[in-house]
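Interim report to the steering committee. The following record documents the input for Bone morphogenetic protein 1-like (240 residues).
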Amino acid sequence: GAVSNANSVKQEPKGESLTVSLFLAHHLSLSLSPSLSLVVQAFSELDLEQHQECAYDHLEVYDGRDPKAKVLGRLCGSKKPEALTSTFNRIFIKFFSDNSVQKRGFEAAYSSECGGKLKAEVKTKDLFSHSQFGDNNYPGGASCQWLVKAEEGYGVELIFQTFEIEEEADCGYDYMELFDGSDDSAPRLGRFCGSGPPEEIYSAGDAIVIRFHTDDTISKKGFHARYTSTKFQDSLHLKK
């Protein structure tokens, strides 16, 4: 997709307001399936008033649903940044223009990226192998990794509702891997394909990493898992 200031790369609007502080502020919140993270890619246009600290006209990109989230970037002038990637499935973009210098504005492309960080809570949440799960098979050439993390003192429980990945004796083509920790250097719980892992999986600590890999040939339905945090962690990790 694409996002731009209100005038779509025409001259940016001057600050006009009936309030005491004369300014113009626009914001946009982008959200996707929880299975994805957002990437604000190349800026095809960035022409805002220049200031060393971007104190006047500027664009702010936040790593979340609102401006309380971590700032990914504060932009002004004409120097285009590298891609800005969200941790989760939301990005909040705020554009501010004062009532003095005017420039052309901005336009940027955004896209989705599979994987990201997910927070396990008492309330059950859903995770899908791909954004069009249920409508289309998973895409070829995918390499996705999710970190599912609970609060300290809690474990992660995964319950697979659906699992259908190309079957092969060593799961060498398409597969899902699970790691019992915060990254892929943690103990591996297994590599799965075909009909998949046991229905329920429990972490020993407060996190599980899910890695999903597909080649460019056969594709299947994919997987749908539900995840939640739990105080009761199974010593064997896997339950039938």
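DSSP finds no helices and 18 strands in the chain. The committee is asked to note this result when reviewing the revised timeline.
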